[in-house]
């Protein structure tokens, strides 16, 4: 898989390159600033881009804005955000822009295998969302909106779905049967006015797009 990295911290950037290349990823380029990111993404069209939110020159939201701009030229470009911050405005825009997406918080990535799995999942059309990011998106909704219709258990299932987990993994995490998870997911789609789908990636993306638009 071909990966492009956007990270201004030299040690972390070098560490990501070494880690990914050691696990059979091809790092096509690693940039350290926002202005270079868009042309690099358009030029290389990687299988997935691992992007920090805050890049030079202003260290605000260059990474996310560049990723969104690149998607206008390369529709569906898979983006995995790896950052210390949750930039809610541009995170919602990224989620609704189409294409595979992930949003992980650096301080919470403690397992190399899980991180690599997230990179692969996004590269192959899936979703990898940190629970804290999902929590903030959920918190933006009120009980008067469709998300407020969910029961506490359905909200738990939704959060795990958004992390990219399968029904079997959700069942194991919640100590329930897969049949129970299937029932909860069908209820979630009905309450959110979203058509159910047997394709887990499309299902998760549809839920995330709904949440991000609120």
TrEMBL record:
<dbReference type="Pfam" id="PF00072">
    <property type="entry name" value="Response_reg"/>
</dbReference>
<dbReference type="InterPro" id="IPR011006">
    <property type="entry name" value="CheY-like_superfamily"/>
</dbReference>
<dbReference type="InterPro" id="IPR039420">
    <property type="entry name" value="WalR-like"/>
</dbReference>
<dbReference type="InterPro" id="IPR000792">
    <property type="entry name" value="Tscrpt_reg_LuxR_C"/>
</dbReference>
<dbReference type="GO" id="GO:0003677">
    <property type="term" value="F:DNA binding"/>
</dbReference>
<keyword id="KW-0804">Transcription</keyword>
<feature type="modified residue" description="4-aspartylphosphate">
    <location>
        <position position="52"/>
    </location>
</feature>
<keyword id="KW-0805">Transcription regulation</keyword>
<dbReference type="GO" id="GO:0000160">
    <property type="term" value="P:phosphorelay signal transduction system"/>
</dbReference>
<keyword id="KW-0597">Phosphoprotein</keyword>
<dbReference type="InterPro" id="IPR001789">
    <property type="entry name" value="Sig_transdc_resp-reg_receiver"/>
</dbReference>
<dbReference type="InterPro" id="IPR058245">
    <property type="entry name" value="NreC/VraR/RcsB-like_REC"/>
</dbReference>
<protein>
    <submittedName>
        <fullName>DNA-binding NarL/FixJ family response regulator</fullName>
    </submittedName>
</protein>
<dbReference type="Pfam" id="PF00196">
    <property type="entry name" value="GerE"/>
</dbReference>
<dbReference type="GO" id="GO:0006355">
    <property type="term" value="P:regulation of DNA-templated transcription"/>
</dbReference>
<feature type="domain" description="Response regulatory">
    <location>
        <begin position="2"/>
        <end position="121"/>
    </location>
</feature>
<dbReference type="InterPro" id="IPR016032">
    <property type="entry name" value="Sig_transdc_resp-reg_C-effctor"/>
</dbReference>
<keyword id="KW-0238">DNA-binding</keyword>
<feature type="domain" description="HTH luxR-type">
    <location>
        <begin position="143"/>
        <end position="214"/>
    </location>
</feature>
């Amino acid at each position: 898989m071909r990966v492009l990295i956007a990270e201004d911290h030299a040690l972390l950037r070098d560490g990501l390159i070494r880690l990914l290349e050691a696990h059979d990823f091809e790092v096509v380029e690693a940039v350290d600033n926002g202005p270079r990111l868009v042309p690099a993404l358009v030029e290389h069209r990687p299988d997935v881009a691992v992007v920090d939110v805050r890049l030079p020159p202003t260290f605000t939201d260059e990474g996310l804005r560049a990723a969104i701009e690149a998607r206008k030229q390369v529709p569906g470009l898979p983006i995995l955000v790896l950052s210390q911050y949750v930039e809610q405005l541009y995170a919602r825009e990224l989620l609704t822009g189409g294409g595979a997406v992930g949003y992980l918080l650096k301080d919470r990535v403690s397992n190399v295998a899980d991180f690599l799995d997230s990179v692969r999942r996004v590269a192959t059309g899936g979703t990898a969302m940190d629970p804290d990011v999902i929590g903030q998106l959920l918190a933006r909704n009120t009980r008067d909106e469709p998300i407020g219709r969910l029961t506490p258990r359905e909200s738990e299932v939704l959060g795990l779905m958004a992390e990219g987990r399968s029904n079997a993994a959700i069942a194991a995490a919640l100590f329930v049967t897969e049949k129970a998870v299937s029932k909860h997911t069908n209820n979630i789609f009905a309450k959110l006015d979203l058509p159910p789908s047997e394709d887990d990636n499309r299902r998760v993306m549809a839920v995330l797009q709904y949440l991000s638009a609120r």
